[in-house]
Amino acid sequence: MKLTLRQVSRIYRRRHFEKSALDKVSLSIRSGERILISGPSGSGKTTLLNIMGLIDTDYSGLYSLDGQDARELSGRQRAACRNRIFGCIFQDYALLENESVFENVRIPLIYAGYSLRDQRRLVQAQLDRLELGAYLRQRPRDLSGGQRQRVAIARVLVHQPAVILADEPFSALDPALRRDVLSLLEQYLTPERCLIIATHQADSLPLSGYRRLTLTEGQLQA
Amino acid sequence: MFLTNLKLGLKDLSRMKLWLLTLTYCLATLCYLLAAGLGSWQQEVILGGGLKVTRFSLTPVSFDTGVTTDLLNQLDDILADHAFSYAVLDNQDGNSTFSAIRQDATIYLVAGDASLAGIKPAEGLAGQAYYNSAYSTTAKNLRLRDLTFTFTSLPAGLDLSTLNGLSQTDDQAEVYIFLAPQQLAVLLDKQPYDLLAQFLTNTRILSQDQARVQAFTGLGSQTLFDISPLANDETLFLVYYLAPFILLSSLLLALTLVVLTRARLADMLRTLTLHYLHGGDRLALNLRFLPVPLTVCLLTLLLLSLLRLWSYPRLPLVTSLVLLGFVLLAELMVFVALRQKSFINRIRAEG
To answer: What is the pLDDT of residues A16-61, one digit of tens each?
Structure first.
């Protein structure tokens, strides 16, 4: 998997307001890479991840996946790519609080077309790997912060995406939990998969082997 | 994937019971209000399939009754065509028994073209007395003044509902007498004045026949009444009060439906965003919301059935249109809410 951005810009427009979130960003990412994108709040990290994750298509410039222009993909093809290629982790865990852990983790499997029986099997196996097997029927609101983040990670890993996009995944965690979460994510990496982390707390993390990029007011500095 | 989303949509229903009931109440009220308004409008404004009828205002101006044979003949002539009138007799003359237990009945005397009153079919009724189907009568004939009417049961298919609307009571025997030409003059000749006053007051003439309208107002000079065409006060009431009220109420109810649906959607947007991020497309997510408006429609139909309102004219048609409109509107709102921009804003808000 190769992700390529060429001169990608994104401007948010309101009625009397215009803000450039990304300014001519060029970047190339290959399978197996570990990328750390740092920068202060509002520097465009989330916008960049949204574009790379095929959530936002309202940009100028070129973004391609394995040479295929992302803009040429239909809505259904983009949805299929979001399901098969990308996995997103968010700062606030982004869990459905009123649903069970099973319902939360199985979401990508629904759109991958797995039967309910296979969904149960895969979710249970993934939760067991993350030591959450006993919490299948629990609701996320009954879990601790670390357990909730692991449920969010289980949801991403259950379908084994090629690219993990992690947007501020450590913000709500204490230093010990940060190391645990990072370790979980790195264990998942293989030469065919890559991990992209966007954070404004890069200095407090034991990150080695990462390609470090910095975003400042929408501009990328390697 | 689509089936799973439909199942998830059904599961969502269990978390929105109060919302469903509120929406059902609003929809049922809207349907009933629109059907009632449309019915009144149709009956009063579009009376007789587009026919407009002139009514009259009668102002007493003299103590002299002035009832003459000539006047009665003129009234008979006026009512012969393009016109209709009626009077109600509370007591008959005692020669007839209307049922095993009743000696009396309310008698509707109908003169002129009964089709103008919405009675269909109006042909072939003249000169007969009809009793309502709820009561049998032992009387063969009904004698009123110098006239004798033969009793006949109501023919199948005869719709007297419009006339019944004038005074419909279930616990009273009712007799309808459709007067033949010339019978009005015979019936009213040298009789108490109140019956003529009723016929004059209740006269309706087809508005397009202005010659007949003028002939009728001209009768005023021969009676104790001053007669003038009346702006249809019921129509005015409908146009200036009831129609705006129904329109405003319907708009408010429709707005309530929109606000409630939007609030529900806003609650669901976090869930839908997560499904979108993990591979859901807009069609699948639209399907997830579909059980919601469909269930509301089902509950509305159930509520209207429980209230036994289906016999109300036009309600089935109005309900079908309103429910169809609601489902389309709800799905349109979901389609708009599931724009890419909404997801991005949601993700930015979360971040």
So the answer is: 888 888 999 999 999 989 999 998 888 889 899 999 999 888 899 9
Q: Are residues B305 and B239 in the same domain?
A: yes
Contact residues, A window 163-222, toward B, CB-based 8 Å cutoff: 167-168
pTM: 0.65
Residues B307 and B250 in one domain: yes
Structure-token pair, residue A109: 């499997």
- Cα B317 to chain center, whole Å? 13
Query: Chain B partners of A88 at a C-beta cutoff of 8 Å?
Result: 277-278
* DSSP-derived secondary structure letter, B234: H
Q: Domain range spanning residue B219?
A: 56-229
B339 close to A (CB below 8 A)? no
Chain B residue numbers with beta carbons less than 8 Å from the beta carbon of A80 are 279
Complex ipTM, two decimals? 0.89
Claim to verify: residue B116 and residue B219 sit in the same structural domain: yes
- Going by C-alpha positions, the residue among A57, A150, A56, A67 that lies closest to residue A104 is A150
Provide CB contacts within 8 A for A11, sequence distance 6+.
A18, A19, A20, A21
Cβ distance of A94 and B274 shorter than 8 Å = yes
Q: Please judge whether B350 and A91 are an interchain contact, meaning their C-beta atoms are less than 8 angstroms apart.
A: yes
Q: CB–CB of A51/A22 below 8 Å? A: yes
Domain that holds residue A165: 2-221
SS3 at position B314:
coil
